[in-house]
Design brief:
With about 190 residues, the chain is of the alpha+beta class. It is built from ten helices and four strands. It is about 55% helix and about 10% strand.
Length: about 190
């Protein structure tokens, strides 16, 4: 019997998507996770949303404190990048250009560099050094640009308004803090 498919929509710039990616192993044995890089800025534009830390000034310091608590709780490093928020269009295109089987490991590598070490993965020289020239060249193709648009439109079309967003059988779960509900549903299925 095959496992249900959970679509995981994320952007490397999203710190809560980093937390979700670090926790995604909690779905092992319950679902097949399909990593779907999207452009968070495109999702925000399409839905009229903004990042949580930009709507109310007091949220930014709280968000970083909250993220530090989550990282300590789950036991992984967190270093807020000086380049936050970075323009991740090219980063997300690189992820869309990679072979599907490589996307999870490559995403984790980029998350660990950006959120774990605080380095700017959106810098073209840094990104090229991390992924290689061939993948960078492929990322600028019309096919890859279309794939990123399709993923972004898919999350918006499903009712998504930010990242991370999980989709199971058309039902949306928003935020890493809702993984427990998704897990509960999968266990009961």
């Amino acid at each position: 019997m095959s496992l249900p498919i959970v679509d995981f929509f994320y952007d490397i710039v999203s710190p809560y998507s980093y937390v979700a990616a670090k926790r995604i192993h909690e779905l092992d044995g319950l679902a097949t996770v399909r990593w779907r890089p999207c452009l968070l800025g495109g999702v925000f534009k399409a839905t009229g949303n903004t990042g949580p830390a930009f709507t109310v000034p007091a949220k930014m310091p709280y968000m970083f404190k909250d993220l530090s608590r989550l990282a300590a709780y789950y036991g992984f490093p967190l270093t807020v990048p000086k380049s936050f928020p970075a323009n991740t269009v090219t980063v997300q295109r690189v992820l869309c250009a990679a072979d599907e089987a490589q996307v999870p490991a490559l995403s984790m590598k980029l998350y660990d560099i950006y959120w774990g070490q605080g380095l700017d993965v959106s810098d073209p020289v840094t990104l090229t050094g991390l992924v290689g020239e061939a993948l960078m060249a492929k990322a600028s193709s019309d096919e890859v640009k279309a794939r990123l648009r399709e993923n972004t439109e898919a999350v918006v079309g499903a009712g998504g308004f930010g990242a991370p967003t999980f989709l199971l059988d058309g039902e949306l779960y928003f935020g890493e803090d809702r993984l427990f509900l998704l897990i509960d549903r999968l266990k009961k299925a």
